[in-house]
Design brief:
Elements: H1 9-18, H2 33-36, H3 45-59, E1 68-69, H4 71-78, H5 82-94, E2 98-99, E3 106-108, H6 113-136, H7 143-161, H8 165-183, H9 186-206, H10 215-228, H11 231-247, H12 260-264
Antiparallel strand pairs: 1-3, 2-3
Helix pairs in contact: 3-5, 4-5, 6-8, 6-9, 6-10, 6-11, 7-8, 7-10, 8-9, 10-11
Length: about 270
């Protein structure tokens, strides 16, 4: 959960020190060792905890594009120095999630509409490459790998039944990671992860309506084409899906002031 329980800071710091947090993947298909290897950040301990908390809050739109991130407040929340806080923010700036204008503090990044279109083109290029490779080599891929896509589609179906557009956006982003893992290319999966955060932020800013068609149907159709080895139809499905995502974009944005203590765990 993004909203942490309201506990004493010392209790939370003890818990943080006892384990290394990971990104909160929604898809059950990504609750695995190979998915854990996609984590690209070199942070550990409290720094990693802060990174994960902020990442989830930004991607789930609790911290919206343009919102100022009050560094002193966050330092107080986590009991850290500003030097540690800046280290985390600088890494998140490299991932395209945070904007650090000189001497003006830290803000959640606001990717342009053009950037959203460009990142969707990147997504199309990666997914068409991967699905073609999977389809052409489907006979050599373990059935358990294809089962992961079925698991992912089932989870999407639950989100659709709950009409949870926020979760569906996360599942859509995670599908790219899953395809890379099914293909068996960990390097490509990590590269996708480095770009996926910025794409998720761009969609959260510029996507106000759910794309046409059921997302779970798309995942299942991709699965069917991959297991059949039908590369041409799989590629057509990917291009159609990216086209739907592009059509769902608009130019609305709504930066605002927020209560960081409430979002990150203390009030």
């Amino acid at each position: 959960m993004l909203l942490l329980n309201h506990v004493k800071l010392i209790e939370r710091l003890t818990e943080i020190g006892s384990r290394m947090p990971k990104f909160n993947y929604l898809s059950p298909a990504l609750q695995s060792e190979d998915a854990a290897l996609m984590q690209s950040t070199s942070l550990s301990g409290i720094e990693a905890k802060i990174h994960v908390d902020l990442w989830n809050a930004i991607i789930d739109r609790k911290l919206k594009p343009g919102v100022k991130l009050e560094e002193l407040v966050m330092c107080d929340i986590y009991g850290i120095s500003r030097t540690v806080m800046r280290k985390v923010l600088m890494i998140m700036e490299q991932d395209g999630l945070v904007f650090l204008p000189p001497n003006k503090g830290a803000y959640v990044a606001s990717p342009s509409l053009q950037s959203a279109f460009e990142m969707l083109e990147m997504s199309e290029a990666l997914q068409t490459f991967v699905v073609e490779k999977i389809a052409k080599n489907h006979a050599s891929i373990a059935a358990s790998q294809f089962d992961r896509i079925a698991q992912h589609a089932k989870a999407e179906e639950k989100a659709e039944a709950a009409h949870d557009f926020r979760l569906l956006r996360r599942f859509d982003i995670e599908f790219g990671s899953l395809l890379c893992l099914v293909h068996g290319n960990g390097t490509l999966a990590r590269e996708w992860e480095r770009n996926a955060s910025c794409l998720a932020l761009a969609l959260s800013l510029h996507q106000s309506v759910q794309p046409a068609g059921r997302q779970s149907d798309y995942s299942r159709q991709i699965l069917a084409r991959l297991t059949d080895g039908d590369a041409a139809r799989a590629l057509a499905l990917v291009r159609e899906r990216i086209g739907q995502l592009k059509a769902s974009l608009d130019t609305q944005s709504d930066g605002e002031n927020v209560n960081l203590r409430e979002i990150l765990g203390l009030n």
